[in-house]
Amino acid sequence: MPAQSPGGSGSVVPLPYDADRLARLMGPGWAELLQRIYRGMLLGRILDQRLLGLQRQGRVGFYGPAMGQEATNAAVAAALGKEDWVFPGLREQLVALLRGHPLPVYLAQLFGNEKDPAHGRQMPCHPTAREVHYVSMSSVIGNQVPQAVGTAWALRRKGVPAIAVAFFGDGASSSGDFHAGLNFAGVLRAPVLFVLTNNQWAISLPSSRQSAVAILAEKARAYGFAGSRVDGTDPVAVFCAVQEAREALLKGDGPRLLESVFYRMAPHSSSDDPTRYQPPTWSEEARAHDPLERLEAMLEHLGVMRASARDLLREEIETEIRRAIQATEPLPPPGPESLFEDTFQDPFPPLTEERDRFDTEQGGHFP
Amino acid sequence: MTESTLIQAVNQALREAMRADPDVILLGEDIGVNGGVFRATEGLLKEFGEDRVMDTPLNESGIVGTAVGMALYGLKPVAEIQFLDFIYPAFDQIVSELAKLRYRSGGQFPCHVVLRAPYGGGIKGGLYHSQSTEQLFTSIPGLKVVVPSTPADAKGLLLSSIFDEDPVLFLEPKRIYRSLPGEVPEGDHRVPLGSARIAREGADVSVFAYGAMVPVAQQACQGLDAQGIHPELVDLRSLVPLDEAAVLRSVEKTGRAVIVHEAPRFCGYGAELAAILAEKALYSLKAPVVRVTGYDTPFPYALEHLYLPSVDRISRAIERTVRAA
Question: Could you tell me which of A79, A160, B147, B200 has the fewest CB atoms within 10 Å of its CB?
Answer without folding.
Answer: A160
